[in-house]
Amino acid sequence: MSRSTRWIVVSVVLALVVVLLAPFVYSEVREGRTPPPLGLQSPGESTASAAPAVPGPFDVDGEWVVGPGSEAGFRADVLDVPADEAVLLGVTPDVTGTFRVRSGSLQTATVTVETTTLRTGSSVADRQLQQALETDLYPTTLFSLTTPLDVSELATTTSPVRLEASGALTIRDETEAVTVALEAQRSGDGVLATGAIGVRFSDFGIAVPPVAPVQVRDEGTVEVRLQLVRPATP
Known about the structure:
- The protein is about 15% helix and about 40% strand.
- β4 and β5 form a beta hairpin.
- By secondary structure, the protein is an alpha+beta fold.
- α1 runs antiparallel to α2.
- Belongs to the UPF0312 family.
C-alpha cells in the first residue's frame, strides 16, 4: 500500500472512530465526567498535586527514570456533538523514560509512550483508534529533549517549578520540533512532572476528512504525568 493510500485509509478510519465515540463523549460531559488534564494546558496552569517532599537536602543531579503511577495521553476537542464542545482523552499507564541531570541542568531526557494500550473508555473505539494510529507499525510515541534545561530550582524549593522544554516529538513516522509546558515538584523522595505538548494532528499524518459527520479540531495536546524516581540499584 502506498503512503498516500495508507493516509487516506487512516483518515477514514479515524472519522469512524469519532463517530463511534460521539455518544460516549457526550455522556461523559453530560454526567460531569470529562477527564481532567494530565498536565498543563498552558504555562503556569497547575493540574496535579505532589506527595509531601521528604525532609532534608535534595540532590537533583544524577539519573532519573519514569516510575509507577505515571501516565500519558492524547487530548482533542470533539465538535458537532450535542454538547457544544466535548473533550476526548485516550490514556495509557505504559510510559517509560530516562533523565540525566548534571550541575542542575537536565542534559538528556527521553519519554516513550506505548500507544497500543491507549484507552478511551470504549472498547470498540479503542480498537478503531489503534487502527487509526497504525499501532501495529508504530507502537510508540517518543519525546526527546533537544536543549538542556535548568532544573536547579528543584533543589532549593518544595513548591512547583514552572519550566518550558524544547524537544522533538515523534508520532507514527513523523517527527516535529515542540515546546513542552512543564510543572515539576518534589514528591516524596522523587519528582512529579506534569506537562502538555500542543500538537497539530495533521502534521503527523492524522486527519478527519471534511465530509465526516463528526469533527475533531486539528489542534490537540499530548499530556504526561510522570513520577520520576531513582533507578533501581542492580
